[in-house]
Amino acid sequence: MALTYAIPDLHGRLDLLEGALDLITRHSSGQKFKIVTLGDYVDRGPESRQVIERLMGLKSSALDLLCLKGNHEAMMWTTSRNLAELSWWLENGGDKTLASYGAVDDLKVIPSAHLNWIADLPLIYVDHQRVFVHAAVDPRIPLSKQNEQTLLWKRYPRGFAGGHGRRHVVHGHHADPKAPVVTQGKTNLDGMAWTTGRLVIGVFVDDQNGGAVEFLEVFGPPAALAKSD
Questions:
Q1: Which of 2, 50, 100, 116 is surrounded by the fewest CB atoms within 10 Å?
Q2: What is the CB-side half-sphere exposure of residue 132 using CA atoms within 13 A?
Q3: What secondary structure letter does DSSP report for 90?
């Protein structure tokens, strides 16, 4: 039985990422597994640079890891390439990311390797049973024709319970401390981990349709008590 573990928005919480990796390794008990991270590794929390470096290192190891792009990585990349105003990013948590690189407003401190890694992140992952994405998919449009704005920024309307055709959608982005929020067609895993200190991980059986068979939780200090620079 192959498993897929989905990790939602980390927002600079290296402690929660480390806890998730440890918990997943123990939970899998030798079974074949994949980890899909749903984006938003940076901003708001204290260790964005360290989260990126950890994920980059894991990508080069034997671990089967797929990192998707979130809207906060898109903001970071766009601003760093002088395609958007710095203030836009800083007001959305980019100040914490720059602080993790040891700067206040100097974009030159961000290594090009980090920006290249962000640029190469896929927007969506589709297997036989599910769609994994940062924000949402448009159920009316084929998965191959979804646009970046939808995949990174869209929020489902209140009460919407569908997925995409027969596939269950697994996403983050919709911050809700009550996560996981599960409907027939989709699962929202974003429990505002960066501020609550509670990270929810979805466990999915690859050859079984529908939602998660289990949810794992990693706990760390809330934002006011988390490590700061």
A1: 116
A2: 28
A3: I
